[in-house]
Amino acid sequence: MQALVTRVAREYRWRPGNVSGMSALSFVVVLAGAFCAFAWIASLLTGDYSWVDRSWSIVPVTYVWVFAGYAHLANARLDLIAALVTLWGARLTYNFARKGGYRGVEDYRWPVLRSSMSKWQFQLFNFFFIVLYQNFLLVLITLPAYTALQHRSTPLRALDVMLAALFVACLVGETVSDQQQWNFQQWKLAEMTAGRTPGERFATTGLFRYSRHPNYFFEQAQWWLLFLVGCVAASSLLEWTILGAFLLTLLFVGSTSFTEKITLEKYPEYASYQATTSAVIPWFPRGHHPSIQTIESE
């Protein structure tokens, strides 16, 4: 009898699906529902609509570790995915925190949208897009880990390691571009605080010489690479989990367009930068790098 009890205990260790009666995917969906409820209620109580932004770098990390946990934390590919996404989350959390994201600073785009909608229209936008759709997307982008869980008998391959190395390279690229943007904004703030007019009003050097949004490029690339890791596990590119990376790309297309519209309205000289510099994918400037029209010459 003691041997039987020991065997059962061993079988149920790190198997929340067995204990709760839920599959890994069902458990993640329940967690996502809880995050949705929290974000929506918090937005109504505080009038602050950046709660999903604050959880953006946290909930995907939670989901991939759930998938890894359902494999007993003993599957090399799933553990690798969880480690990579954790690094991604740590970097994004740090960058978001230093910009005041966890101190009540709201995404500058939400006030612009609120001003263009009636109160009830924005509340519908908040519920269906900010809360539901974005949380749905955060589940989707982590589902390559679910693919890896379903095909956990597939051994880790050299291609997995290569994709992981590319993921880390993109992580470094995003870190560099965010740091360059941070350095520029800090310099700009210091100039304005000192009563001087900044010579430029937006970043155009470093990685920003080759892309207007290099951080967007590296961010999207990481999730496409994660999708490919899932494909390696399944030994097929025909995986429905491509929806995550695809819909994330569509979100960034819309976000980039909206962000650039705001920037162009604020800084007319931004048009010169747009004319010569790739929007997202890093590439050599077309012709000579633009001579940005500064505030003094307006």
Would you mind describing this structure in some detail?
The chain is mainly α and 298 residues long. The protein folds into two domains: 1-120, no CATH class; 157-298, no CATH class. Helices cover 69% and strands 0% of the residues. The chain is built from 13 helices and no strands. The chain has helices at 2-12, 16-20, 24-46, 51-55, 59-70, 76-98, 109-115, 119-140, 143-150, 158-193, 214-234, 242-266, 270-276. Helix 10 (158-193) packs antiparallel against helix 11. The longest helix has 36 residues, at 158-193.
The tally of beta strands, per DSSP, is 0
Radius of gyration: 22 Å
Q: Which structural class is indicated by helix and strand composition? A: mainly alpha
Order of helices and strands: HHHHHHHHHHHHH
Q: Helical amount among residues, as a percent range?
A: 55-70%
Distinct helical segment count: 13
* Straight-line N-to-C gap: 86 Å
Supply the number of structural domains: 2
Shape: globular
**Which percent range describes the beta-strand content?**
under 5%
